[in-house]
Amino acid sequence: MHLPRLSPLVIEPLVRATLLEDLGLAGDITSNAVVPEDHQSAMLFRVREPGVIAGLDIAEMAFRLIDPTVKFDRFVRDGDALQAGDEVARVSGNSRSILAAERTALNFLGHLSGIASATAGLVKAAEGTKASIVCTRKTTPGLRALQKYAVRAGGGMNHRFALYDAVLIKDNHIAVAGNVRVAIERAKAHAGHMVKIEVEVDTLDQLREVMEIGVDAVLLDNMSPDMLREAVAIINGRAIAEASGGITPEKVAAVAASGVDLISVGWTTHSAPNLDIGLDFEA
Q1: Which CATH number do you get for residue 258?
Q2: 225 vs 256: CA distance, rounded Å
Q3: 71 catalytic, yes or no?
């Protein structure tokens, strides 16, 4: 899997702000009191449960911003599936520097690896179908780029990044516009030729009306697998079919088997469990 790395221009401000939140004006007063100023250490990142790793660049940035002389040696790559006890990376250098950045590095690494691991589980459940797992805009404010990167590390794909890169007409848009035809016609008149238009529907009658007008994609909201199969037949390849709403690990295989192209999931970014990763003293 080719996983393009996030730009340092994206990573650095987020990591810097997190370190500032933790260290404040006085720094790590515990380590400064307990650890000699020139003490050197080596410590190992290990996963304590199976999962998919994501966020190594972010973890490394935490140490680099505190102390550029600290070494961060990786044993795996983002997107790798690991077992409990596997070593992820070794960090070595000034002990105070390592301890000052430790929690920031672990917070990012555990959170993003949790997202990647949750995504990978859904991707595996959908194997053998054409359905791709995609994320949503239900992300932690400020962390969207990192969380959507973690979804890709887990084998998923990204939905639109924000309000500016695609048109998604939902029920409230239709209510304000008056009806779905008016909403779609206004969107087509406003959007440039590079902008895709998707419409959310929750009944097959709504879907038929939308397909008569014509759009690029249809979001099939909270439909059962049987209803999704009917919807896919109505669409008949004329638009991208996206299933959304109530997608759980137990349901995703049946949803994927309905023939949809995409399955969008919000909880992988807003509620995925943290992957348990520790930083253990080596020497």
Answers
A1: 3.20.20.70
A2: 8
A3: no
